[in-house]
Every structure is written in C-alpha cells, then in structure tokens.
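Archive maintenance. Older records in this collection stored only the sequence; we are now back-filling the structure field for every entry so that each record is complete. The fields below show one back-filled record exactly as it appears after the update. Entries are processed alphabetically, and Phage major capsid protein is next in the queue.

ARCHIVE ENTRY
Title: Phage major capsid protein
Organism field: Bradyrhizobium barranii subsp. barranii
Length field: 352
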Amino acid sequence: MKHESQSAFRREPREPVVGGNLFTRSLTARTLASLRRSKAADVAAELWPNDRSLEHLLTRAASNPAMTSVAGWAAELARRYVSDVIEALGPASAAAQILRRCLVLTFDGYGSISAPGFVAEYGNGGFVAEGQPIPVRQLAATPAVMNPDKLAAIAVLTREMMESSNAEACISDALVKAAGRMMDEVLFDANPADNTRPAGLRHGVAALPASVSGDGYEASFEDVAALINSLAPVGGNGPYILVGAPGRAVMLGARFIERSDVDLSIFGSSAVINDLLAIAPAALVAAISAEPEIETVNAATLVMDTVPGAAGTMGPERGLFQTDSVAIKVRWPVSWALRDPRGFAWMTPTWK
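Back-filled structure field:
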C-alpha cells in the first residue's frame, strides 16, 4: 500500500523538447489563428502536437506557469525563444549574425530601454601598495537608450500556401528573412536616428585611412590590423566581427580565419558595397520584441507598391477576396545602439 502511494505521486519524466525554431512556429501559429479566427494554441496543437515548448509559450496557463526565473525548464525556454527570434532572421543577414553575438534585450511592452554604457580604459584600475588607499575613479557610464522603432512588412500569400504543410516555411521566408535583409541596410548605413529608425553604425564615425601598399595581399593585412587596433581599447582580445561585400568576405575568410589567434568572425553583406566594417560585439546592444504584432486580412484591396506614395501615385492594386489571397502585416519593434563609439570602425580599402 505504501508502495502504491509513493508511485501515485511520482513525477512523470519530462517530455523531450522538440527541435525547430520556436519563433517561426509561434509566428505561423498566430498568423493562421488570425486568419481562422481561432486560438494560436489550437493551431499549434494541430500542426506540431508534440512540441511542448510551443504549447507552454502559447498557452501560459495559470497552473504551472512558465516563469523565466525558474531554472531547469522555463528559464531555458525563454532563452531559447529569444535566440530563435534572431536565428529566424536568416543566415543571409549579416545584421542577424552580429546581433546574435551582442547583448540582446527584450522590450516586454516598455516604451524604451536604457542599457548601461561602459568604457574599458587602463586608467580605470591600477596597482596599490599594501596599506595605501585605493583611488576612486568616476567611470563614464552614459546609458544607451533604445526606442521600439518599427520594422514593418506586408506580404501576400495565396490561401493554398497558407493552408499547406509548408506554411511555416512560406511565412518565415516572406516576412522574417526579408526583415533581416532590411536590417542590414539600416544597421550598416550612416544615417542618424529619427522617429522611425535607430542610427546606423557609421553615423558620426569617420572612416579610417586605408593602406597605400601596392601589394593587395599585404594591404588587406594592414587594413584589418588597423581596424582591429582601433577597436582594441574596448574589444581587448576579441571577439571581433568583420563585414564586407560577399566576395571580399570570402577572400578575408581564406586569409585570416585559420591564421588568427583572435576570436574573429567574417560575414558578407551586399549592403556595405565597397567598405569594410569592424565591430566589437561587446560594445553593441540590441533590443528586440519577442512578440511582433501580426494582422491578416483576406477581403481588401491592397496597393502592390514597395514604395507607396500619395493618393493617385501608387502602384497597381490587388483584390485579395477575388484572388483568394491573404495579406499578412507584421510590426516588429527592433532597435540597437553602440554602448561605446570606439566599438565600431570602418574604411574603404583599395584592394578587391
């Protein structure tokens, strides 16, 4: 009898966590739920019945809630979800690869986030003789403030695409990866922050002089050394990230990855054109909403224009009801900031 009582209260083993990207599955479930006027948890149960992580994420029941402070289950779930948000942006996005390596925060409904700045200087510390007072130094800690700038997109898919077994792949490719490509354009430009977007990394940062060596092979080593040395006051021995045009990134990878003792990653992006960028990810902070707002509509007229203008100047229109199509709108709060301007450097090399 005692044995039966103990077995009755024995905890069942936890079901294994199913693989896959939590963010894209959550996005797909909520998109289809919006279209069907149903619950996202019901859609998830239909499409991925064995994904317990997704069930916990979408249901958030009052009993046994998933709390990020509870180690061993929900804490790991929260970390995985935030990681999957960035991973979903796609390997083709250099910006996504960089954000995976920097400090990443979530908005969680707040209007703005203030992240501590830092300055790593040799003068901030020093040796002190036994019994002597330790100097007190006022360290610079200007906060990096990030507002939830809106990264938005509208994509049109046919109902057959939405209802097929490839719904997750179609929705992810149409919306999330396109957003990652747009992030490259904004992250690497020189425009200032305004009420629509964060500042590009090159804003206010002058280009370093490129090597004048006539030997392209030697010039590439000199340029990379100059960039890394510029970041060293805040980056130390790494990690560091180089971003160049895709072809140049392949060239740099062949020359540096196997030879460098420094933690160095090299990514390609067509958004940087002929420039070469260097980043100390410890100096960069990003804030991303893990829950983008999603709306769907299947009975409206949509202006099919990538640059919509004033009335009368817009592009062709598409009737969603007549073509049995679905328009998906995503509004995604995303922002970033340099915690220290010395964490970024760039130049325009003369070698190809």
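Update note: Residues 1-17, 61-75 have pLDDT under 50 and may be disordered. Residues 104-119+137-302+317-352 form a domain with the phage-related protein like fold fold (CATH 3.90.1690.10).
Entry marked complete.
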